[in-house]
Structure formats: structure tokens, C-alpha cells
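Workshop exercise sheet. Pairs work together: one partner reads the sequence aloud, the other fills in the structure field after running the prediction. Swap roles for the next sheet.
Pair: D.N. / O.F.
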Amino acid sequence: MQIRHLFFFVTLAQEKHFGRAARACGVTQPTLSSAIQKLEKDLDVQLIERGQSFRGLTGDGEKVLAWGKQVLDNYDRLRADLREPAGESATTAERARVEGRSPVHSRQSAIHIYAAGSLSNVMSAVASSFSEMTGIPVSMQHGPIGPLRERIETGERPDLFLSADVANSSRLAELGLARPPIIFARNTMCALVRRDANINQGNLIDRILNPDIHIGAVMPAKGLSGDYTWDIFRRVERFKPGAFAVLDSKTRKFNGSPLTLAVQISRDSITRSINDGTIDACFGYVTGMRKRAGRLENVELIELPASIDVVPEYTMAPLVGCRPAALSFALFVLSPSSQAIFRRFGFTPITAPAASA
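Structure field:
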């Protein structure tokens, strides 16, 4: 029997949901399910009632839960004692404060993060790396950042808020709900265009103003990529008076349900529309557009002319009263290893190692 498997089982019993338990443990749901099945095999008992979802613990499961909590408590104390220099002692809670984590974090206390939908893939990799290094689980909730910020304003309290802009994080700081935001990465806006639309970087502005060219984008205020797209339109206005009204009017605005907007738009509406020719061009983050381009044949990515380019900046704001471990995670996000992950996923890192002498 492995301590790790016991930890997964206790977490599932606490969360009462396979998906939430997996996120709290920093693993995939199949990994968590497999580990619990191995624990059942090792103990030769059935621990949980299975169905379409988690139904509860069996009688044996309740016994193992009580026993498992005690085992994990003892395990935490043993690890703390073994780390103490000879002749010194400290409680698990005292050690937790020294190490910048919450007491018995590995069993009970995941770091909870609200993050922009465009960060879902890269932050999964960063969180997995952090959890593997520290043993601290990370729970992520992704979605349109405006509604996530509003949930914090109405009382919800994650540990960290990761936005695809500065304004939303700054808003929480102004309200006294979060610390001042820190920029940790940048993205790039681009245009995904159909090849038969004859659009390139040099003629992009003129072509998108052409009545025969149909444009699509996320609706402003429903997703930050939409807000950035309308910033692009405002920049076009500087060179082409009246262009903003034309672009605002002609652009097909995509929408979706608040919690699944990023998934619905990226995988369904825009991809389908540009594939069937309903739209000829759409604007968005290069990190997401590359995935769309990889699924379609008659498309290409166009870099924006410097004159109309905007640079999305991703900010991180620790909530007031957040777990100490969340601050450790924030520092980890800025570390060279995490910044390398951001680069691998197509973001522009905010930090880089100093050049060799």
C-alpha cells in the first residue's frame, strides 16, 4: 500500500467528487481512480460505491477513512521530525509556517486559483510541475475573467487570481481584496484567415474593411480576447477615420455560457465558422489560434502590423488572507523553469536568465 494512494482516497472522501478530488491532488481523474483501485486491491476490500458518479463510501471505506486520516497525520509528523536538526523540535503547523505552506497541506489544503481560460493548458503544466516538486496540490478554475472577478467581489475567496489583463487584477487590489498585481507573462494577438480571402500582413487593414470580408471575434466583455480585438479596431481608427464603426458593425460576435465560454468558442463556433466560410478572418491570442490552425486546412496565421498590434499582459494577484503556499506558487510561476513552460506553450515569458558573460 502506498501513502500516495491513501492520500488520494482521503481526498476523494472529503471532496465527494472524482473531478474535484483529482484537481485537488494535482493529478488526472484516471490517475486518481486507478490509485484508489490499487488501494482496494491491496486491502482486499471495496472502499467506495461506484456509479455514474461518486455515491459514497462503503462500510469498510468509512473504517479505512478514519484509519487513513490517522496514518496521514502520523506521516506528516514523521516527515516534520525527520527534517528537524538534532536536538530541535517543531510541530507540523510550525514547520508549515517556516516552509511557506499551510499545515497538513498535502492532505487537506489545495491552493485554489481562478484563472483566465486562455491559461488552461499552460497553467495545468505549471501546476503539475509545482505539485511534483512540493507535494502541494493545486486546484484551478478557468473561465472568462470578468465573471470570475465578480465572484470574488461577491464573497468567493480563491488564493490567487490570474488574469489576461491588468485591469481586472487591479480592480481587486483597489477594493482591498487582493495584493497589487504582478505581470508574469505576455501573449500575442494575431489574425487567423482563410487563404482564399487573400489577406496578408501588408493589406490586412484594407481587407478587413472590405465589405466582402467577414470577420469574427469573441464579444467584448465576454472574453478578454474580444476586448483586445476591439482595441485593435480602435487603433485602425487612427489611420482610417470611421473604421471603428465599420468593424464594430460588421464583426460577428461570438458568445457562450459563462463557465464554458473558452471551450465553446475555441472548439466550436469560431473554428466551425471559419472552416465553412461563414467568416474569412478572426482575431485572437496566438496561443489559441495556433491550435485552430492545426485543425484546419485552408487557413493561415497573420501577424498584426505593428501600428495596430496590442500586447495582452497576464497578471497574478494573491488574495488577501491567501494560504502561505499560494505565495510560494506565485514565486514558482516567476521562476526560470515555469517561464520556460510558458515559452513552450507560445507565451512570451516576462523573465529570462541573465546572458552568460
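Discussion prompt: The longest helix spans residues 59-83. What would you look at next?
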